[in-house]
Amino acid sequence: MLSNPVFSSIILMFILCILRCNVMLSILISAMVAGLMAHIMPSGEAYTFMKSMNYTLDVFMDGMKGNLQTALSYVLLGVLAAAISFTNLTTILINKISKFITKSKFYFIFVIAFIACFSQNLIPVHIAFIPILIPPLLSVMNKMKIDRRAVACALTFGLQAPYISLPVGFGLLFFTILQKEMANNGLNVEISQIASVMWMAAIPMIVGLVLAVITFKKPREYKDIENNTPKNLDEIKMGLKEWGALAGIVVAFIIQICFGSLPLGALLGIITMIVFGGIKYKDMDKTFDKGIHIMGFIAFVMLVAAGYGAILRETGGIPDLVNAAASLAGGKLGGAALMLVIGLFITIGIGSSFGTIPIITAIYYPLALELGFSTSAIIILIGIAAAVGDAGSPASDSTLGPTSGLNFDGQHNHIYDTCIPTFIFFNIPLILFGILFAVIL
Q: What superkingdom heads the lineage (predicted)?
């Protein structure tokens, strides 16, 4: 097994990620190792080490083209998020909701989860809303003695459940990557087919959220620490920037729904913001810079992940690995469990479920065929295998985002209060339900 270039490369990538090596560098090194181990060369040429290295890099760069649309979508969505962060839209939202979400701690937590869902689909700002929304609410949580671990789970739920279950916003991006990578490996499906199955992935997420809220229902004391959040929220009103940004959000949402194109929706949303004052013409460079800072790194991770997937296919080591894994699995039940657990480790290491899809699809599709899974089962296996591990990963935006808001006063630990709770309450249900769904579909 260790002589298999695909197996050795993935193990190397996982080890490098666990050792906190930069994710992009980890993938690049692992891809080069796979290509060199397999001695991949241009057809008809005699092997030399340097020619193999050059050809490996050529295949890698050619494979990156598969995620160009995805990378562009990320950058444009980052610009939208940056533009919204320069307005008072989120602050006004805080003022509106803070007056009616204090009925009970359970009501508060579920409303936070509901609002967080908007950041992935309705208003695709990803984690940019958390440092704006959560710090002003910390004093409210302290008075209600809410355990912030429950709020961390609510935020992570809102950041992950919508994109793995609904084809809107980041969900459309996730589904599009699934569609493209499955097509690259021989399975052609429509977005509607993916949506008809992946909605089931929300079920274990909802179960996990309810269990987390019940588990962390006991009061927990926190110190009241003064922060610099605005006190006079009632004085903040909708202005030209806010209305312009809102118009851009509406246009982006309508375009992606009507035409199924996230890049087009984001582009027209940005143009609408510029025309109607949501983005001042003189501030365009600053807005784009911040947008690229927010999402640019993730966009590049997606590009190199697609290149890595192309290298894995080029090595020719996948069939041998599939045969070995199929014999080890011993049937559908064991195969589903094996695929989901491997997906868990890869995603925890990379920190991005979007970046995991190109890597695992190259192996999982032929393995799933070998084990006799249906098309619907293959879709949900790959989708959940990519998503599982996003919660609980120390390097994931789904955990880093909640910590950035809840630790604003220094009383929330990233590992013990965000990563471990979200790992337990979301990854375990995703694996258990994923196995069940794959077997029954």
A: Bacteria
pTM greater than 0.85: no
DSSP H/E element including 301 = helix 284-315
Does residue 383 sit within a domain?
A: yes
pLDDT digits (tens, 9 = 90+) for 324-379: 777 777 778 888 888 888 777 777 655 567 777 877 887 788 888 888 899 999 99
How far is 154 from 353, CA to CA, in rounded Å? 19
Q: Which residue has the tokens 């980052």?
A: 78
Residue 5 structure tokens: 């270039």
> Does residue 211 belong to any structural domain of this protein?
yes
Distances (CA, A) of 227 to 260, 278, 379, 407: 42, 28, 46, 12
Quick one: tokens of 95?
Answer: 């003022």
Inter-CA distances, 346 with 11, 13, 81, 352, 412, Å = 9, 8, 28, 9, 26
For residue 336, the enclosing domain spans: 5-220+234-440
Which H or E run contains 426? none
Q: Examine residue 225 and state whether it is found in any structural domain, yes or no.
A: no
The span from the CA of 30 to the CA of 146, in Å, is 44
What is the full DSSP assignment across 43-57?
TTPPP-HHHHHHHHH
- In the chain, the number of structural domains is 1
Q: What is the DSSP string of 112-164?
A: HHHHHHHTTTTS--GGGGHHHHSGGGHHHHHHHT--HHHHHHHHHHHHHHHHH
> What ranges in 316-427 are assigned the alpha helix state H?
318-329, 332-350, 353-371, 375-387, 397-406, 420-422
Helix H or strand E encompassing 2: none
The DSSP symbol for 414 reads I
Distance of CA 30 to the CA centre of its chain: 22
| SS3 state of residue 248 | helix
Position 407 in a domain: yes
- Give pLDDT tens digits for 381-396: 999 988 887 787 766 7
- Conformational region of residue 346, where left means phi above 0, alpha means psi within -120 to 50, and beta covers everything else: alpha
State the first-to-last Cα distance of the chain, in angstroms, to the nearest integer. Answer: 31
Q: What is the pLDDT of residue 197?
A: 93
The pair of three-digit structure tokens given for residue 428, joined into one six-digit string: 């375990």
Q: Which residue type does 236 have?
A: I
Q: What is the pLDDT of residues 294-314, one digit of tens each?
A: 677 767 777 887 788 788 878
